[in-house]
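Supplementary Methods. Inverse-folding protocol.

Structures were first reduced to a discrete structure-token string of length 412. This string, shown here, constituted the complete conditioning input.
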């Protein structure tokens, strides 16, 4: 029997039972759609996070308290309070670390900010003008707080556009007094609408001097982060080693295994993001693969039913010359065509869901979430779908091929 005849017969058989065929491949459609959606979401998340990291620039290092986590057992060490003002002074001291251009201490908290009868809970960041420069945000009204106000721990604040709108409406905010944690803060400036920059929703935050945040808000002399900007990317590895040496000396650490801080470079952050999203994508894809197995079992069951229903047809075809190979090829091809159709449907459904998800997330997060069509995953999914059809269709096809033509013709 020619290959074209086998293909034509297989298509005719599937077309004769379109409703059953459609229901049979549902598991395959869901499995492939889930795979496409998961891989696309992982890639979209990776691009979003890397894009946010780029907002800090490729010359910025992050110093954070706590030993760098190496696994679940060390996770708690992330929250060790160890960075202080003396570390900032040591890093800014001329000649200590050649190549450093800026050092920005950062204190972060969430507080209710109020004016008269209006109140909004938002992020309050204690920082310096260097932090704003790194993020490339400048007041559109008023001024930024100066070094003297930082030194004097002055209760002054700069408001993001949304905070200003929610509190003051059309009233000029500059010069007004807002309250944060029962402390009066004089508004010295407001920022224009900027959206999300480097994980910070600039429109919904308040900037105050970091020294002021320590005294009036956190009540501690600790820092959550120190941002360090260097002259060029080429010197980042050397600067990182120099900083580690200075901080170890400041903290009295002689054994690197006992570090109470860790430094993240842009390359480290990108590698970590790729690793985490890769692991999550792999795990969720494995879960999605369960649908493919379930779909494969459904294919096998329906093909066995089909063999039983078409026993006389098989006997007749064998009686007029069809070989075992012809019967095997036809039923195997039917199974592969079913799952391949499910794979194509799954790719279409997964793509549609991916675009819908990216739209919803973009609206919810307030930042563009790009749908990245996973071409390799789609091609792989189609191959896997066909392979599932082959594997789970093999037993029913063999069973059909082994039927005795005489017994098959007698089947009622």
């Amino acid at each position: 029997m020619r290959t074209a005849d086998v293909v034509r017969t297989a298509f005719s058989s599937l077309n004769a039972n379109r409703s059953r065929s459609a229901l049979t491949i549902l598991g395959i459609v869901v499995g492939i759609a889930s795979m496409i959606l998961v891989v696309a979401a992982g890639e979209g998340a990776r691009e979003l996070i890397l894009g946010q990291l780029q907002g800090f620039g490729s010359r910025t290092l992050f110093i954070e308290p706590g030993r760098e986590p190496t696994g679940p057992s060390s996770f708690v060490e992330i929250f060790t309070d160890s960075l202080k003002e003396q570390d900032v002074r040591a890093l800014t001291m001329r000649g200590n670390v050649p190549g450093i251009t800026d050092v920005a201490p950062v204190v972060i908290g969430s507080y209710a900010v109020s004016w008269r009868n209006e109140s909004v809970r938002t992020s309050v960041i204690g920082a310096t003008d260097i932090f704003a420069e790194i993020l490339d945000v400048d007041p559109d009204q008023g001024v930024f707080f100066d070094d003297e106000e930082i030194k004097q721990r002055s209760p002054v604040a700069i408001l993001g556009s949304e905070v200003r709108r929610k509190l003051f409406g059309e009233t000029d905010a500059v010069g007004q007094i807002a309250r944060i944690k029962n402390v009066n803060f004089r508004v010295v400036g407001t920022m224009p609408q900027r959206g999300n920059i480097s994980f910070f929703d600039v429109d919904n935050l308040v900037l105050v001097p970091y020294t002021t945040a320590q005294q009036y808000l956190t009540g501690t002399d600790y820092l959550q982060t120190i941002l360090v900007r260097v002259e060029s990317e080429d010197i980042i590895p050397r600067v990182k080693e120099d900083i580690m040496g200075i901080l170890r000396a400041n903290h009295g650490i002689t054994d690197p295994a006992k570090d109470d801080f860790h430094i993240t470079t842009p390359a480290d952050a990108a590698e970590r993001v790729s690793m985490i999203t890769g692991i999550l994508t792999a795990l969720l894809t494995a879960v999605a693969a369960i649908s493919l197995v379930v779909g494969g079992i459904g294919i096998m069951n329906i093909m066995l039913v089909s063999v039983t229903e078409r026993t006389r047809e098989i006997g007749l075809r064998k009686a007029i010359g069809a070989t075992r190979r012809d019967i095997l090829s036809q039923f195997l091809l039917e199974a592969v065509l079913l799952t391949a159709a499910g794979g194509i449907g799954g790719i279409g459904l997964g793509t549609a869901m991916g675009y819908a998800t990216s739209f919803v997330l973009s609206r919810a997060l307030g930042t563009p979430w790009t749908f990245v069509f996973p071409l390799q995953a789609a091609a792989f999914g189609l191959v896997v779908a066909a392979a599932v059809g082959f594997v789970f269709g093999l037993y029913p096809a063999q069973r059909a091929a082994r039927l005795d033509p005489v017994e098959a013709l007698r089947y009622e």
